[in-house]
Amino acid sequence: MTLNFAMDGVYAAYCRSRREHCVKVTALHEFMHAIGFLHEHLREDAPAECKVRFKHDPDVTGEAPVAFSVTYDAKSIMNYCESIFHVPIELSEEDIEAVDAFYRVQ
Q1: How far apart are CA 65 and CA 76, in angstroms?
Q2: CB 30 within 8 A of CB 45
Q3: Distance (Å, rounded) from C-alpha 87 to C-alpha 21?
Q4: Residues 73-97 as b or e (16 or more Cβ within 10 Å = b)
Q5: pLDDT tens digits, 26-56
Q6: Which residues have CB under 8 Å from 16's CB, separation 6+?
Q7: Is the Cα dihedral 14, 23, 58, 42 positive or negative?
Q8: What are φ and ψ of residue 9, in 5° steps?
Q9: How far from chain centre, in Å, is Cα 23?
Q10: What does pTM read for this prediction?
Q11: What is residue 47's three-state secondary structure?
């Protein structure tokens, strides 16, 4: 995993005037990777056009996300098919439930 705060490439134009916001979103998204979450848009039940658009960028070769939620989560911070740069920066309800289920302190 690499935290790249250069904000170049696809997001350059958007992030040029929103650098702090983009850094926070990127950090949260990458933290979710660090604790074991993969991209929501690579799930088997993701919309076909989304899977095609991002097929060149797999999470881990030969790995696919384990579906925690029953349905595809379009609002997930791990989903590239919808903008992860929304305001406010937040995890979706399903993201929170998944983190809680896997990392609940008893």
Answers
A1: 13
A2: no
A3: 9
A4: beebbbbbbbebbeeeeebbebbee
A5: 899 989 988 888 888 888 888 999 888 887 7
A6: 7
A7: negative
A8: 70, -135
A9: 14
A10: 0.81
A11: coil
